[in-house]
Amino acid sequence: IVGYASMNIDGDTGDVAAFFIAADKKGLGLGRRLWNRLEVHAKDRCVTRLRVESDPQAVPFYRAMGCRQIGDVPSGSIAGRMLPLLEKRLA
Question: What is the CATH number of the domain that holds 47?
Answer without folding.
Answer: 3.40.630.30
